[in-house]
């Protein structure tokens, strides 16, 4: 049963990195249930980087680098703060705060969608806050997906630009996180890398199936899908 759960989670990881956004929380929940909260972050990280490589190759031409440059500095700071407090913060408190932020953000986005507002947030405060929160949450629990999804939705990015920009952003930040997991938290080891190597085929299968599905989804329906699944993920986190 544990192997089935792990393979399913890694398959979902491939789907997620191909552009089926909003399911990252389900992956984190499954792996945390099998391995424990902190250990699962180190097991997941190399698989994230592997899937990121596929994503940046596949969606490279769609990446919007000016958004990456806006978010990256604050994300780096968020990661460093996450390294510092990650061993001490209460897992339950972290998940409750994240769930409230995610669900609140989704409600705001639904409101903006229904108003058909074309207004795009341009303040540095908005991008820096989103970047810091994404960096902190990705370090502590690999949970930055909902934060970045909300940001890119607010920017009203088309489907492929959304996926390509997120792919490069998280490839860079996940590689940046890796030394901290190896040398400080010690959650990445030879044993976890051996496990990762066994699971790689499931990542590849999920990625290419997801890439095919993404082609069939319109921009409008894609935005709705991301909002709905992100909201569900926030609710799962709140009551888990």
From TrEMBL:
Membrane-spanning intervals of the chain: 7-35, 41-59, 71-87, 93-112, 132-154, 166-185, 192-214, 220-239
A Pfam family matched in the record: TauE
Main localization, broad class: membrane
Keyword annotations: Cell membrane, Membrane, Transmembrane, Transmembrane helix, Transport
Coiled-coil regions, chain positions: none
Membrane topology: Multi-pass membrane protein
Compartment list: Cell membrane
Any single GO CC term annotated in Swiss-Prot or TrEMBL for this entry: plasma membrane
Family designation: Belongs to the 4-toluene sulfonate uptake permease (TSUP) (TC 2.A.102) family.
Protein name: Probable membrane transporter protein
């Amino acid at each position: 049963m544990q192997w089935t759960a792990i393979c399913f989670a890694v398959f979902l990881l491939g789907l997620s990195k191909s552009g089926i956004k909003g399911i990252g929380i389900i992956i984190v929940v499954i792996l945390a249930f099998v391995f424990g909260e902190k250990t699962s972050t180190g097991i997941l990280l190399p698989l994230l980087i592997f899937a990121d490589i596929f994503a940046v190759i596949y969606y490279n031409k769609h990446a919007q680098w000016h958004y990456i440059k806006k978010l990256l500095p604050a994300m780096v700071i968020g990661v460093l703060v996450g390294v510092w407090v990650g061993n001490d913060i209460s897992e339950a408190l972290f998940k409750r705060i994240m769930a409230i932020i995610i669900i609140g953000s989704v409600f705001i986005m639904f409101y903006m969608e229904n108003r058909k507002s074309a207004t795009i947030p341009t303040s540095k405060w908005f991008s820096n806050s989103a970047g810091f929160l994404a960096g902190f949450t990705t370090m502590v629990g690999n949970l930055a997906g909902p934060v970045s999804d909300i940001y890119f939705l607010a920017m009203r990015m088309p489907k492929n630009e959304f996926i390509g920009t997120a792919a490069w952003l998280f490839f860079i930040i996940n590689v940046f996180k890796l030394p901290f997991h190896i040398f400080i938290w010690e959650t990445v080891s030879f044993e976890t890398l051996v496990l990762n190597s066994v699971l790689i085929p499931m990542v590849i299968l999920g990625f290419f199936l997801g890439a095919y599905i993404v082609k069939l989804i319109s921009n409008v329906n894609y935005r709705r899908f991301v909002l709905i699944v992100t909201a569900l993920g926030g609710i799962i986190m709140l009551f888990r």
